Amino acid sequence: MKRERIAILLAFIAISAAMLGLVAANENQGYSADVEVVESNCLDTNETGITEKNHTENGLVFEGVMQTPNPCYMVNVSSLERNGDTYTLDLEGNSEEGMCIQCVGAVTYEVSFTAEESGELEVMHNGEVVDTIEFEVDEGSGGGTDGDLFEAISAWFASIFGF
Hints:
Layout: H1 2-29, E1 31-42, E2 49-56, E3 59-68, E4 73-83, E5 86-95, E6 105-115, E7 119-125, E8 128-135, H2 146-161
Parallel strand pairs: 5-7
Antiparallel strand pairs: 1-6, 2-3, 3-6, 4-5, 7-8
Helix pairs in contact: 1-2
C-alpha cells in the first residue's frame, strides 16, 4: 500500500510539473486567439472583413467573413504576434479535401482573442490587413498563478487518495 501511494505521488508530481510548464509558457506569452468557422457559403456581396465586434473583460470576440476561392475552406490562425501594444493576428484560409461547388466562397468565422494587457489588434486575412480593433483589458482579469494551479491539483489528489 505504501509503494502504491509513493508511485501515485510521483506520478502526481510529474504530471503537475508538466502542467506547470505548459501554463507558464502560455502565461509568459500573455495572449491567445482561437478561431471557429461558423458557416461557409457562396459570396453574394463584397462585404468581407470584420462584421461584428464585442469587447470582453480580457480581450475581444469578433466575427468576420473571409473571401475564399470556393466555400470549402477552413479559417485558421496563421500567426499571432505582439510588438509593443500592437497584436497582429493573421488568419489564413485552407482548402478542405474533396469536391466543392464552384463559386467564390464566403467563410464566416468567430475569433476569441484574450490578452493580459490592453492594446490594439490588427486583423489580417492571408497577410492583408482588414481591420484594427482597440481593446482594453480589465485589471485583475489575468487569472491565477502557477502556485494556485499546483495547490488546486494537490488538494484534488489529497481528497482522492487521502494524503
